[in-house]
What we know:
Chain A is mainly α. Chain A is 36% helix and 2% strand. Chain A is built from 13 helices and four strands. In chain A, strand 1 and strand 2 (106-107) form a beta hairpin. By secondary structure, chain B is mainly β. Chain B is 13% helix and 42% strand. The chains are: A mainly alpha, B mainly beta.
Amino acid sequence: MRKTITILTLLFFISGIILFEACNKKDIVQPAQTTPLSIPIPPGFPAIQNFFVNNPVTQEGFDLGKKLFYDGRLSADGNFPCASCHQQFAAFATFDHNLSHGFDNQFTTRNAPGLANLAWYKEFHWDGGINHLEVQPLAPITAPNEMAETVENVIRKLKADATYQDMFRKAFASNEITSQQMLRALAQFMGMMVSANSKYDRVKAGKETFTTAEQRGYQLFQLKCSTCHQEPLFTDQSYRNTGLPIDNVLKDMGRMRITKKSEDSIKFKVPSLRNVYLTAPYGHDGRFYSIGAVIDHYRSGVINGPTTDPLLKNKLSIDDFEKADLLIFLRTLTDTAFVNDKRFAQN
Amino acid sequence: MKKILIVFAALFTLFSCNKESSSETDLAPLKISFQLEAFGAPIDTTAFYTNNSGEKFKITAFKFYVSLIEAANSSTNSRSAENESYHLVDLADPATHQFTVSLKNGIYDQLNFIIGVDSVRNVSGAQTGALDPAKGMFWTWNTGYIFAKLEGKSPSSTAPFQMFTYHIGGFKTGENAIRNISLPAQFQIGKTNELVINADVQRWFDGVNTLSIASKATIMSPGGMALQIADNYATMFSVNKIVNP
């Protein structure tokens, strides 16, 4: 009797599996031979955006995304991979450049932001014009002053490459290479870039303690900065005018370019401060070469206009001692493991 | 033993496939053809036309998305919508001027569709097929589809090379350029072979609003004038022919 039950149970599960497979044949999302990965959610972080609902992260998709990220063929002349402006040692910002270099000796018009924790972002770019991680790379790829290429050409180049043919097949179980697959692979790679192993994070987890200066800096930070640079992402993802005088060449209207509302004039997204010591220069056009200069702007440089943020209209009162403590605290946001993580480095 | 078998059988049925209620044999093909016209005749890209504002112009590009195609019967309220219904009609590519849709058998008196791309597909990341961003109908700096494009040259244009460029799109509140088109047409899915629909570019200039090339030669972002142009081209369609055997 017991034997019969065992056999029946086994039969039941096997037939169940067969049926399940048969029913799902039509819309296979994840091919069987891929290795699933998941985006790690650090303690205290909210849930990620729904970017990966139709794009389950796999090792194969991630590897493909990484190859694409470091491949100059995504640009018109082969010189400008994503990584040319997003360098790992600079926490995926452009090291020491206010504006980055693009195709044909041109400058970008804004400072390249560091890339980390993108799976938590509602919108991308300083003006929030991009509404989904998958479609973000289309902007730099097609911008004439960045990678200056067409999507059609990129796909043509990828299709002609045997390694890519193999990698796309492995990642998406299809013999066709499409822009959708390319963008999904890039989203997988970028989505996995989670930075949450700084001293700050280890202190929060109770594994380390702040020095007294760091602790004073943290308290000040919570008092003066964290409304906008909200933990744990260190941005509230809002758009604000921080009282920067407008540059007459760039004439960058910020968020207003997207919403066309005058109340959004010269507002820019609050940048994350994670790895802030590695991502200099600062500001949407990189006009500040040090964090000290940014703090000085909040202390004495804020220009009051119709859209200047109410929190900054009266400037921030931070004395020199407090400034030093703040700078010491901000150093604890550097995630050395992240910038040395081989998973995100070029092979 | 019997009990085990019953439980086994019950569970087995639970796990069996959920077949769709309407079987696929209810569906039949219908060919939809677009005749791209200017002032009542097929577009000639070498010809100069004159709009009601007295402006001469020629056409170099004309494209639009036809999406969410649906056959409807206004008296019985029955409807049948095409699955994954996105089509890009491109003047430069005659193969795109006609396509076949699969709809439920029945008698209908309306063909409905939208010009543009529904908001869901504007916010759901990278799309493929007709919605592939490689088709050049996508704003990369301000996420969203260009629903319709009309480009050409006119001596009245003050833009470089005397170009006029109208890229119309926008799905957000206040910028919504999606237009519902409903064309009266007596047809029967399962019998009618083809619906031929005219689309006349003149309506871009001389529609419910007047578009003067001299006063506006370039529209390349959502909102504002884009909404007026969308209202204009929403009136460019008419049923030319219903082909029955």
